[in-house]
Amino acid sequence: MVTAHSILHKFWGYQQFRPLQEDIIASIAAGRDTLALLPTGGGKSVCFQVPAMMQEGLCLVVTPLIALMKDQVENLNKRGIPAFAIYAGMQTRDVEKVLALAREGDIKFLYVSPERLQSKRFQWYCEVLPVRLIAVDEAHCISQWGYDFRPAYRQIATIREHFPSAPILALTATATPKVREDICRQLQLRNPAVFVKSFARANLSYSVVEEEGKPARMKQILDKVPGSAVIYCRNRRQTKEIAALLGAQGISASYYHAGLTSAERTARQEAWINNETRVMVCTNAFGMGIDKPDVRMVIHADVPDSLEAYYQEAGRAGRDEEKAYAVMLYNHRNLEELKARIPLQFPAMEEIRAIYQAVVNYLQVPVGAEGVYYDFDINDFVKRFGVNITLAFSTLRILEQEGVWQLSESVYIPSKVEFATSRDVLFEYEDRQPDLSPLIQALLRTYQGIFDNPVPVFEKQIARIMRVGEEDVAHDLQLLHKQAIIRYYPKKDQPQLCFLEERLPAQHLRVNMVLLEQRKKALEERIAAITAYARNNNQCRTQQLVAYFGEKDAQPCGVCDVCVKKEKGGLQSKEFGRLTTAIMAALNGKISLQALMEKVDAEESRVLETLQFLVAEGFVLRDEDGMLSATA
Ligand code: ADP
What we know:
With 632 residues, the protein is α/β, with parallel strands linked by helices. The chain folds into five domains: 4-196, Rossmann fold (3-Layer(aba) Sandwich); 204-339 and 536-555, P-loop containing nucleotide triphosphate hydrolases (Rossmann fold); 341-413 and 495-521, Winged helix-like DNA-binding domain superfamily/Winged helix DNA-binding domain (Arc Repressor Mutant, subunit A, Orthogonal Bundle), CATH 1.10.10.10; 415-490, Arc Repressor Mutant, subunit A, CATH 1.10.10; 572-630, Arc Repressor Mutant, subunit A, CATH 1.10.10. Helix content is 46%, strand content 15%. It contains 26 helices and 21 strands. Helix 8 (156-160) links the parallel strand 5 (131-136) and strand 6. Helix 2 (21-29) runs parallel beside helix 3, helix 20 (459-466) packs across helix 21 and helix 24 crosses helix 26. The model has no long low-confidence stretch (mean pLDDT 90). Bound molecules: adenosine-5'-diphosphate (ADP). The site of adenosine-5'-diphosphate has 13 residues, from helix 3. Residues 506-533 form a coiled coil. It is an enzyme of class 5 (isomerase). It catalyses: Couples ATP hydrolysis with the unwinding of duplex DNA by translocating in the 3'-5' direction. This is ATP-dependent DNA helicase RecQ. It holds the Pfam family DEAD.
């Protein structure tokens, strides 16, 4: 019989399920809508992959990050499972191929980005796709109360109408009770089963330190706790500076942010994963999809803008269940800055229009353009137009949420070539341009079918075959393109901005300001929550964190800064108890202070301190001559 267990063993080689995985799988296998909250690294994918493998039909997986989507597809393919992905930025023809395969039942898992659900082609295919299960990863993105709202997620519920009998599994690592409710409502889950793994992490010690001299403190912390570490910073410049400072003090450190080329990012990430670099100083662009078990320390050099983000990032420490530390360094100014960002994150209509205008000028988008992709380097944009970067980001996000455009992370799209002439014209051209003939021949020989279809080509490969430089190949391909012999689409490896709607004159741009106002309030609440966390050094950190995620009855963790401080206080109070007993026993009738001191075996100042308390509380009497006695 095919059991969940046998599937797990056969395809993944794992012996047993992790906590809750089996319950979630059983719920899905029984056809019930399910919401599951598992921490990052808790093994969410298995929760939909195993039940999908237990039955016929297709599992549709909605997930927002293209890079992670590709990872998962690769991972499944490695295990011999047919899985494909479609996402924004893919050529229509490729999308069509994948959807056709899916319709034929030749695919087990189809990963789609939420934006794709909106496309007419996809909607049309929905009629014929054999979908038996819908998995929604990062389900908190559907809620405008959450910290990562993505409006395209709202389309998921409409997709469901096509597959009324397929259960939905909504998965997330962080969601407050309010966001959970919103997920169930927005996805129209029917009587959902809800599984929540506790947010408490017994091996992780949280601390918060108010500190002005942060670099020195970081060095001190890293000296105390050996092993792999991550330092999260707010901006790119800081990552570089802090890595250099640590390096100068003999700590092996490197830095990472989204502004580096993908080759640099991969190299640095690998060096850190292989423990060749000890400390990775980074922005929040680092860490997604990385499953390094032995991170001993995560330091936040600044205050993140939500407890959700903090919990996720700090949670990258100690995945191996061994002791690990998460330290947040902050100062008064950081908290002020967080607050000051609120109006930048929710600009007025006029500011939104001005930035929209600047973007279309920057990219030179003609009025009326629609469905067009542009390479978009936001840093270059803000530099050239003198725009505040936070304001630019927020406006991009807001207009993305309004469906005006879509900003996608760096996507690698290989170069493509297709021929644009008849064979006769081509022969004639080769006669006229003998210099370019070898390149044309290399294309025709290396890439089958290139004469009839656009085909991905690799400049490097052609360069190797022709024994020339890669740059020369690219240059000559451009030349052939200009002369209308081929159509050459150079590779892209940059964030893309795609205009989903017709590009409007800025004054016609409309934004739902009421909705924006509500979201601003949600942000204010999130910032208030993390500010309270930073300032509250009286309640166990784990208790504070998990309460935010809805667990009100957690025990003190015993390992955070607050618990450790109380523990020390607790030792003192034990000593206080011992001294009280000793003093009261010594007060047999009236005795002098000196006699008492001789009888009680402890440091004099401690005895005096305790005695003072006992007198003040009326347990001990001191008469006019200074003689001590117990009150009756
Ligand atoms: P999440 O999406 O919750 O962050 P993943 O699904 O990526 O986590 O899983 C994290 C890692 O744990 C993956 O390498 C996965 O293969 C592994 N894993 C999942 N379930 C099990 C299991 N039952 N036993 C051992 N490893 C598992």
